[in-house]
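#lab-general

N.A. 3:47 PM
ok so I finally got the sequence cleaned up, no stray characters, all 1499 residues accounted for. can someone with queue access submit it? mine expired

B.Y. 3:52 PM
send it over

N.A. 3:53 PM
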Amino acid sequence: MAERNSTGLLMMLEPSPAIAMSLPVEVREKLAELELELSEGDITQKGYEKKRAKLLAPYIPQIQGVEPSLQKENRIQMSQAAPPGSKHNKSRATNTRDERFRSDLHTEAVHAALAKYKERKMPMPSKRRSVLVQSSVEACTPPDNHAAPPDVTGLLEHSLHVDRDRPPVASVKVVPRGYNHSGVMETADGVPVNSRVSYKIQQLLNTLKRPKRPSLREFFIDDFEELVDVQQPDPNQPKAEGNQMSPLAGEPLGVVTNWPPSLLASLQRWGITQPRSPCLTALDNAGKPVYTLTYGKLWTRSQKLAFTLLNKLSTRNEPLLLPGDRVALVFPNSDPVMFMVAFYGCLLAELIPVPIEVPLTRKDAGSQQIGFLLGSCGVTLALTTDACQKGLPKAQTGEVVTFKGWPRLLWFVTDGKHVVKPPKDWHPTIREANNEIAYIEYKTSKEGSTMGITVSHPAMLAHCHALTQACGYTEAETICNVLDFKRDAGLWHGVLTSVMTRMHVISIPYSLMKVNPLSWIQKVHTYKARVAVVKSRDMHWSLLAQRDQRDISLSSLRMLIVTDGANPWSISSCDAFLNVFQARGLRPEVICPCASSAEGMTVAIRRPPESGVPPPGKAVLSMSGLSHSVIRVDTEEKLSVLTVQDVGQVMPGALVCVVRVEGTPYLCQTDEVGEICVSSGSTGVAYYGLPGMTKNTFQTIPVRASGGPISGRPFTRTSLLGFVGPDNLVFIVGRMDGLMTVCGRRHNADDVVATALAVEPMKFVYRGRIAVFSVSVLHDERIVVVAEQRPDASEEGSFQWMSRVLQAIDSIHQVGVYCLALVPANTMPKAPLGGIHISETKQRFLEGALHPCNVLMCPHSCVTNLPKPRQKQPEVGPASMIVGNLVAGKRIAQACGRDVAQLEDNDQARKFLYMQDVLQWRAQATPDHPLFLVLNAKGTVSSTASCLQLQKRAERVAMALIEKGRLNPGDHVALVYPPGIDLIATFYGCLYAGCVPVTVRPPHPQNLATTLPTVKMIVEVSKSVCILTTQAIMKLLKSKEAAAAVDVKSWPMVLDTDDLPRTKRLQIYKPPTPEMLAYLDFSVSTMGILAGVKMSHAATSALCRSIKLQCELYPSRQIAICLDPYCGLGFALWCLSSVYSGHQSILVPPLELDSNVSLWLSAVSQYKVRITFCSYSVMEMCTKGLGTQTETLRLRNINLSCVRTCMVVAEERPRITLTQSFSKIFKDLGLSPRAVSTTFGCRVNMAVCLQGTSGPDPTTVYLDMRALRHERVRMVERGSPHSLSLMESGKILPGVKVVIANTETKGPLGDSHLGEVWVSSPHNATGYYTVYGEDALHADHFNTKLSFGDTQTVWARTGYLGFLRRTELTDASGERHDALYVVGSLDETLELRGMRYHPIDIETSVIRSHKSIAECAVFTWTNLLVVVVELSGSEQEALDLVPLVTNVVLEDHYLIVGVVVVVDPGVIPINSRGEKQRMHLRDGFLADQLDPIYVAYNM
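B.Y. 4:20 PM
back already:
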């Protein structure tokens, strides 16, 4: 509330326009100063409000009762209507933006655009509230009528209608847990929902329902060439209409009589003839001159260094350096003197200097790429200063560390005491400028890679000559250099040309500019400098500080060279600077913007006024036209315009042309924007070591429309985008580095920055700290905007600003922003001399290492090239399907296991119809044969049971049921036991008494609230009249804690079986027919549905016989089982199989692995087990828990070479990645790579497939995932794009028949066609056991027939999609082997855009997208795809995941994610089989019970 009150107070104190006009001048001035302090960060928001309130208090009338929104409007009007009288207000009229990107016209355009969007609301993302606030117990699952949600994807016409009369939605406040929202909200189809999350999604739906501006392109024909088409050009887009341009030549280079033959000759000349003439003055951080280097000193010190480098550095008596070697120059920006000496020293020694930035830490932005450059240049030596060397990070040995990606360097300090005076007879050789490399300048490309541009001696000389002529430089002139002297214009003007013409350079370090932005102007005044070399940023900074100075004069300046004139927004700085400093003697004609690039060096510069050139030009261009590379001059009233100034004339001796950006370099038309190419002797020569890129850039041959070259000379591409205007003036509208091509239209990053900064950013973000770049997602560029958020900005305020920026960019540039991210202050990677390191920012964004604190994704509005939604074709009839398959030579997809009737084995148990008879027979025949062995966490045997012991215990249980429980045959009994012998004994006790057992997992004592209701539900649904359990669990069921979760009074009779008395001989119950119910098998499906199936005595025996035959189980065998014994195949293996086959089962309860991960594998090794069964969760625990400990296990003598087959019991698609990881990790312990396989069972049949001990190894195929979405199987090669590996689910069991059927027509399908797996076998379950007995509802699940072909066989529908494929392998019978591949559960598939998706495929992509995603689950809600990810890293990484998840799902699956929910590890519910419970998760999400770290709503 405190926050809200303070803003309310501020609103009350805002003056109306009338009051604002009547404020005294000094108050207005103080207010303007306050605004400035706030914008510069010198005062906090709170301090600002306090001081402002104090200033305005006397002038504000009491306005209680006025609606605050009206006052807010007044405030906006006031901020726009600034009083004309105030001089300060004039100079600081809009101190809320970065002046470099400032234009009143543009600001008005942005505000006009935003006015149109006033009504639009967007759902705000939610961050985690305090965990202390407890969640509401009443949170409920939404009703079932959510099943058919509305279409909100904008594809149906009726959903485009927007209800304008609906009252406006209130802004979302974060509601604490337990907050009861009494008003019932509605979803888009009018379904009432009472949850905050649904409220937000409702807002999201409203946003999505608005028609999108660009019409959705209907691409996509259902073939598999390229699914996503390129954007078709708009027929109405503007096209270039002018004539073809002619190349433009600069004036010829003048012939100077005494022009030196090389730069070094010039240095020698001035060093000897003018030794006292000042060359360079260095300043300290206070602006005081520290040292003035004279030409004499420069000459002698350079000679000393050259001699030392060539003669005094050696390794093994060999000189370390030879002429032509590359040497790194690592000098701080504050030491130009040492740099200049080192640079010329290298040139004198015929070494090639490579100037680079000083690496401050091992992780500097872009440092790795610099290292790559040094490595490729073969640099072994780095020159630096003593102070700098001391400041570099050191290793423990005291040597400078090797930076990441850098070659090993020898560091040499060039200070006086380390260099040697050369002997009298030693003189450096000074040659004429030959074609050798003079120096290498580095440049960082758009992608972040660093290239070295080589400059030859003739080019260096010619460039100095051209600059001297263009700028009219004369001897002994004073020049003020504010730029980095190591590269670009700072090097060309301040180190090279200055020596050529004997000028005096005043070098202003960046550190001084940060402390005193006016320093360069003061130095121009002090030294009466004739020329200053600056960037528009320096002009902008000095504007902010200029009020402190009254007595400076700029009248001495004849040229103010603005070196980033190539940024179209530099015009605003130039105009504002002139506006203020004209009164201090600055003449308008002095401002000379120039255009340059690392490759082309200086391309064009506006000449000084005395050279008699045409007046400067200005063009107002349509941004829409520019996006189509066409020049359309606009009137100033139009909203979407760009005003640019010229950058003067072409350099002397250069030939310039403009060529098309892409493809063959055709000359542009006169009204077309293209890349500027220059042919002259003063450009870079090559990219060092990159001949291919060099040819493309430095040896371009522009061609006319006819195809003929325009000139025999090669041209250099400058990466500047522009055109030649009237009077042969060059205009630049952007750079290739900032070019973003979206939907075939080109946008400039600087223009987008300008629009973002026109949206009043002052309160929310730092002005100069904003990056705009594009990333490639789904075959097109997508625009990303990243800015630094102020620490005092509120969540809601920042979010509103972000929304407005999106709207402004959409309106001005007609392009959608894909992602807008705000990061905490001072966390964006910085370039060495201020500004943002764009490519590093982009890299971090793509790697998920940016750590934003706010993210807004808008994929819905800017991804317009999605494939057309699939239209369902009318189904082909089943008869046509069969005929089609026969014609194509494909067999019907049908397969079966071995025939049980014909298998002769000495199976004594076959004689018995009932399991209880088998146990009795074994107790008589082999009473002491051990059947079961249960291990505890220590690996010791906790309990055992022989045939006789088991029989006796079962009899006691049966007696207790009959005598104590007074139960009748056919009564249902719930068995609530931990895994162990008790569970098995009570199961047979129930059979002995004629009761129907129902095994139930006991509740977790630490988690009764969620586990006990499931127990209660199974007991009630199964109609159990009695519960058998242990004393401990019995107490738990009736405890006070249990009473909080369920009604403990409604439990049926509970009997504990801990101390049962010995019994007299019992008469065992004989069922009248084997078709009678033996037991009920209850489990919760992944859809969250509790389903119990009925297993008859006949099915139970048939299941045991099939498993026995498949696994070759005999009394002499031992098998190890690490499974939960409560349902499905796990129960059958744990309780039934040993009794039937007589083998010994070593039982390992999976819960024991929590305290001893290696328990299962130790048991397998200790007992030399050949066959073992486990679940995916057990396999995952071993893989994660023991992955790094295989060596330790080997030392403990764990050996897995005995394992012949290890089967994962599952009801899902095989998890091939997990099984392969498991095999790979434990290969070192002797595990055969062929041993691991999977089984497949489901509710209708516990065991359809099981690998067993004989038969061929499981096969793996690779499918096209895109075909799978269209419900088709298309085999591809391993490693193909969009491929999905699928492993066979084990061998089909004896007696089992499988057919693949069409889910709609119920007709059989052909080989390798995707359909539902139907199964027929003696061990099928006989039906669902439901509480209401509505068997008709599910009758066809267990009792269905094909509509065509074999219409007699009764099949059960598994509810799983899969296909059969005949392989080249042969099985035991010598027949070709039919492999069954299970693709996924039909109930779980997501129907999106007319296609069928399997959640696991989307989840696999998402988990792959970032290392901190531990687990993921997806589901849909109202046609929105919701992705829930578990974050294993720190919470600051949470928002990194949002764009990465959105990108990967778009790229891999052509789907737009609607909501991304980031949660803590362990939030996604997983059942005992290791399967995700996605529907439970969905319920938790809708009831707002997940306590998410962050919820992002993608617009």
